[in-house]
Amino acid sequence: MLVGLAGNNGTTVATSILANRQKIQWEERTGTKTPNFLGSVTQATTIKVGETATGEDVHVPFSSVLPMVDPRDIVVSGWDINGANLYDAAKRAQVMEPDLLRQLRPELETMHPLPGVYFPSFIAANQADRADNVLEGSVQMQLDRVRADIRQFKADNELDKVVVVWTATTEKCVEIVEGVNDTAANLQASLEAGTTGVSPSTVYGVAAVLEDTPFMNGSPQNAIVPGLAELARERGVLLGGDDFKSGQTKFKSCMAEFLVSSGFRLGSIASYNHLGNNDGLNLSSQEQFRSKEISKSGVIDDIIAGNEILYPPGHKAAGPKSGSTKAVDHCVVIKYIPYVGDSKRALDEYSSEIFMGGRNTISVTNVCEDSLLAAPIIIDLCVLSELFSRVEVQVPGEGDVPAHWEPCCSVATPLSFFFKAPLNKQGGRDGVVNALFTQRRGLENLVRAMSGLPLTNDIPAIY
């Protein structure tokens, strides 16, 4: 169930699943196209499982190593504050090709988003015109309605598991306030009292957890407040977040890891984006942009912290008298340019110190089809969160407490590969890993361990 079903990401996910399930072909200027899951780790990558007698590597599809959901079997529904049916919403998004939408029109027109939770102060004022499909009543009443929607959807479709993914508009971040959202009990009391400091995304997260349903936060705001993380731990429900890592930021984490691991002292990153979809319109508001700026800026922190040769304690990017306050000067700019639509432009400049006082500058222009990069991530999160919600680990006995089984994790740190601002086991952002290939190895090794395969070992590849 997608929060933001009628948005660009929501319509792209729904349309792509239907197209893959029905094996629909469509025409473009360059010829006939067929549906696929390119960009999905679970559906389009492989895992090495061994070697032949002659030393050749043997790889199998990632999705075949453990029992995983086939995305073609996923049933899509969700909420949106805009009530457009999915055909009209997909046409508005201008992401999928007209010939594909024409063939799926009869089915898409029957798909309508459920009314959504709408607290106007949390998103930009420019979103008010879209808000024609909203829940009424107190915060507690809206929470109860969302819970009922989850139960009804599960029963109507005879589903084994529901996963809730927030792919709606970026909200402003909330303050962590003692007595409001710092503990599970306080958060639930705040919801019942209608406290204004609780965001819609947190309402959906609480509803999902109370229905024993995994919740993934694909936007940068801090939806998973300490009280929600505690509630999920108490109930053994999976959480994941924050903010899908799809285009520019994924590339940035690779570049930073490449430069630092090569022994270059990365000194500055200047990142500029412009896009013209509704996400860009919402981010033109300063409070919402600030949420995105925080998630995009923290992606290099652990890479820098891991090398005290290049970055000794107290190091400033351009020297002690330069005015620099950080080890790497890092600036993020996002502008709304309606003409470019969903085709985001990302321009980055990486400046580094190299051998004997030299300087190296790398400039990159990246055209990111925003929703077509995000949709396979959403599919992966649904597939993997369903998988991990079935996994338990045995905890050794201690004292009077016997050995017992527990969920493998509450906050899904193994899914950090998919998020710009991944969360630690407590639901915070301290001490997390952002280096992309480290995240990828960690995810693969967990899958390998659960299937009985040895962990990855790269020594034979080079020796």
From TrEMBL:
It is found in: Cytoplasm. GO terms for molecular function: inositol-3-phosphate synthase activity. It comes from the Eukaryota. Its cofactor is NAD(+). It catalyses: D-glucose 6-phosphate = 1D-myo-inositol 3-phosphate. One of its GO terms (cellular component) is cytoplasm. Its EC number is 5.5.1.4. GO terms for biological process: inositol biosynthetic process; phospholipid biosynthetic process. Pathway: Polyol metabolism; myo-inositol biosynthesis; myo-inositol from D-glucose 6-phosphate: step 1/2. Residues 247-371 form the Myo-inositol-1-phosphate synthase GAPDH-like domain. It holds the Pfam family NAD_binding_5. InterPro entries: Myo-inos-1-P_Synthase, Myo-inos-1-P_Synthase_GAPDH, NAD(P)-bd_dom_sf. Keywords: Cytoplasm, Inositol biosynthesis, Isomerase, Lipid biosynthesis, Lipid metabolism, NAD, Phospholipid biosynthesis, Phospholipid metabolism. Its main location: cytoplasm. Belongs to the myo-inositol 1-phosphate synthase family. This is inositol-3-phosphate synthase.
